[in-house]
């Protein structure tokens, strides 16, 4: 796949952004290839997803060079943002956990990958920034929706309007990432997390993700009703039967 690799091993679909020569920035071909990787991650044999990036930076966002080269820049950028945003939504809607390992720099639409992941392991030297205003552009791929929900409205506005860069430690403090580890350990730690999730109760983990991510758009009453219906289905799964028996046998 052009600009993206995907391999499945041990129940984990590893999606790698693979354009290191341009800091894994995303052009149309890459957006389409990412969609193909999401297709593979939908396979029932996949129980967790891991996203990584090749080279010195995780993702610099949209490929500015491809935007500048387009005959109709407005039409191209509209299509690119819609395509990548749609595939990231599909990733978020998977009924399985998504882990991201990030390093170097996470900028622009690169933040959308982080915000779409359920757990994020960051290398200590990573920097996070919106970057859009630096080239006269606006947020895309769900960043304006997800970022304030992760860090709060005023912090999101500071990042957007002042192009405030965050260190990995600040990103963890603000709620943007889950763990910060030494640079050399980031990918290995994310692999451990993904493997642990893949070994866990698939229905329970996937549905917990769905309930929490969906809670922003339902009423408390709808949430309680959906939780009740879901836990009723969960207790009938083989994983629940096995784990309940093990719990009672302690």
UniProtKB/TrEMBL annotation:
The chain crosses the membrane at residues 98-121. The keyword Ribosomal protein does not apply. CDD domains: crotonase-like. The keyword Membrane applies. Keywords: Membrane, Transmembrane, Transmembrane helix. InterPro entries: ClpP/crotonase-like_dom_sf, Enoyl-CoA_hyd/isom_CS, Enoyl-CoA_hydra/iso, Enoyl-CoA_hydra_C. It holds the Pfam family ECH_1. Belongs to the enoyl-CoA hydratase/isomerase family. This is Enoyl-CoA hydratase/isomerase family protein. It comes from Thermobifida alba (Thermomonospora alba).
């Amino acid at each position: 796949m052009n600009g993206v690799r995907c391999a499945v091993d041990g129940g984990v679909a590893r999606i790698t952004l693979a354009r290191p020569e341009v800091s894994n920035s995303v052009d149309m071909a890459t957006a389409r290839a990412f969609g193909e990787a999401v297709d593979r991650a939908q396979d029932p044999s996949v129980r967790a997803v891991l996203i990584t990036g090749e080279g010195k930076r995780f993702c610099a966002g949209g490929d500015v060079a491809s935007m500048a080269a387009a005959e109709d820049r407005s039409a191209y950028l509209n299509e690119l943002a819609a395509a990548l945003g749609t595939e990231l939504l599909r990733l978020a809607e998977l009924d399985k956990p998504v882990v991201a390992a990030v390093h170097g720099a996470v900028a622009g639409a690169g933040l959308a990958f982080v915000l779409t992941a359920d757990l994020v392991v960051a290398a200590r030297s990573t920097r996070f920034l919106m970057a859009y205003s630096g080239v006269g552009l606006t947020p895309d791929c769900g960043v304006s929706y997800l970022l304030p929900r992760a860090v709060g409205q005023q912090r999101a506005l500071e990042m957007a309007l002042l192009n405030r860069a965050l260190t990995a430690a600040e990103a963890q403090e603000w709620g943007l990432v889950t763990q910060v580890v030494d640079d050399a350990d980031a990918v290995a730690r994310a692999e451990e997390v993904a493997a642990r999730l893949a070994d866990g109760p698939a229905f329970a983990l996937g549905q917990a993700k769905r309930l929490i991510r969906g809670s922003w758009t339902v009423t408390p009453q709808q949430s309680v009703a959906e939780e009740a219906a879901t836990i009723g289905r969960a207790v009938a799964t083989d994983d629940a039967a096995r784990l309940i028996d093990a719990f009672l046998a302690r």
